[in-house]
C-alpha cells in the first residue's frame, strides 16, 4: 500500500468512522447487560460518543481538506450500521421499534440501490438532504428518550416511536421523490 493510499484510509476522519463501527458491539454488550434502569445510561453514553465522533469527523474532514472517496463511503456505513443496531436492540424492549427497524432497512436499501443506479449513470447524491438530517436528529432524540427515561409511561413510549416512524416515512418519501426527479433528469439528458 502506498503512502497516499495509507493517508486516505487512515486519515483522522476515517479513523473516527472506524471507531464508530467498533462502538456498535460495545453498545450492544452494554445495552443487553443492563439490569437496572440506571445501567441504560451507559448505553446512551456510548451512542452519544458515537454521535459526537460522527459530527467531528465531517468537520475535521472539511476543515483540514481530508475529504476522501473512502471517507464518503465509510462514514454513512458507520451511521447506518449504528442506527440499525440500536433500532434492532430497542425492538427487544419496545416491540414497535421492530417496525422502525424494518422501515429503516427498506429505506436504506432503497437508497443504496438508487444511489448505485444513479452512480452508474454518472449522477450521485452528494451528502444527506435536510430531511435525512432531520430524520437522524429525531432518531437520536427518540433513542436517548427511550434509553434515559426508563419510567416513561407506555403511551409516551409509543408516541415517541410513532413520531420516529412518521419522520422516517416522510424522509423516505422525500428521498423517493428526489431520486424520481434525478432519474428523470438522467433519462432526459441521455
Describe this structure as you would to a colleague.
82% of the residues lie in helices and 0% in strands. The longest helix has 36 residues, at 154-189. It has a single domain (3-189), classed as Four Helix Bundle (Hemerythrin (Met), subunit A) (Up-down Bundle), CATH 1.20.120.1760. It has helices at residues 3-9, 12-33, 40-63, 69-91, 96-120, 130-148, 154-189. Helix 2 packs antiparallel against helix 3 and helix 6 (130-148) packs antiparallel against helix 7 (154-189). It is flat. It has 190 residues and is mostly helical.
- Quaternary state of this entry equals single chain
Structural class: mainly alpha
What CATH first level would be assigned? Answer: Mainly Alpha
* Cα Rg: 18 Å
Q: Count structural domains.
A: 1
Q: Mean of residue pLDDT?
A: 91
CATH architecture: Up-down Bundle
Helix content: over 70%
Which spans of ≥5 residues are poorly predicted at pLDDT below 50?
A: none
What name does CATH use for the topology? Answer: Four Helix Bundle (Hemerythrin (Met), subunit A)
